[in-house]
Design a protein that fits this description.
alpha+beta, two-stranded antiparallel sheet, binds calcium ion, single chain, 206 residues
């Protein structure tokens, strides 16, 4: 009787290698999936924090931050990401003795390198101490969209996927009414970086 013991044949080896390959692929796919899920929930919780900030600003000032700095301070911005910059500037203002948002440093950018007139910095009395018009960005590096209900129906130039695109306030397809009709809208372009007016994979407050 000969021994049954023998080494792997070439085919068996190839099968084993293929299985390892498939398992590794599944593993990295699952890893990618969980990173994506983690980023989505990070965006959701930042949006919830921004909402609380905007609401507490409203308690002190009687209204939500405007969709552009021009309305409040008659400054001519560069027209890009004005809602986000205005939201950030107003939440960072100490004009009433307190600020309204605890900014996460890694999410503060000035992607379009614009700034406020120096003389306004003291007037606004914001926490940054310089005149940079910052944006607050999502986990994929794109600024959130912020639109005050006064400006629903208007189009705004915002950064999506690293370049300017036009957006306007999101509407429910079912009821053909704006989301958050008497408050404000905040959303992220989501994992694909493309703004879809709070539809598709965009991450929104509703
Ligand atoms: Ca800008
Ligand atoms: Ca800016
Ligand atoms: Ca999107």
């Amino acid at each position: 009787m000969g021994s049954q013991q023998k080494g792997f044949t070439l085919i068996e080896l190839l099968v084993v290698i293929a299985i390892i390959g498939v398992l590794a692929g599944m593993g990295s796919q699952m890893m990618g999936y969980s990173i994506k899920k983690g980023n989505i929930s990070a965006a959701e919780s930042e949006i919830q924090r921004l909402i609380l900030g905007v609401e507490s600003f409203q308690l002190d000032h009687g209204d939500y931050p405007p969709t552009s700095m021009e309305e409040a301070y008659e400054v001519s911005g560069n027209g890009l990401d004005t809602g986000n910059e205005s939201m950030v500037a107003h939440l960072a203002s100490r004009a009433k003795g307190r600020t309204y948002f605890d900014f996460t440093e890694e999410y503060l950018e000035n992607l379009d390198n614009d700034s406020l007139d120096k003389s306004l910095v003291d007037e606004i009395s914001w926490v940054f101490g310089d005149n940079q018009l910052r944006e607050y960005v999502d986990p994929w590096g794109n600024p959130y969209v912020y639109i005050h209900n006064n400006d629903y129906g208007r189009e705004f130039s915002v950064t999506g996927d690293g370049k300017p695109v036009m957006v306007s306030a999101g509407q429910s397809a079912k009821t053909a009414t704006y989301y958050e009709p008497i408050r404000f809208q905040i959303w992220s372009a989501g994992p694909d970086g493309i703004h879809e007016n709070a539809e598709g994979d965009d991450v929104s407050q509703w």
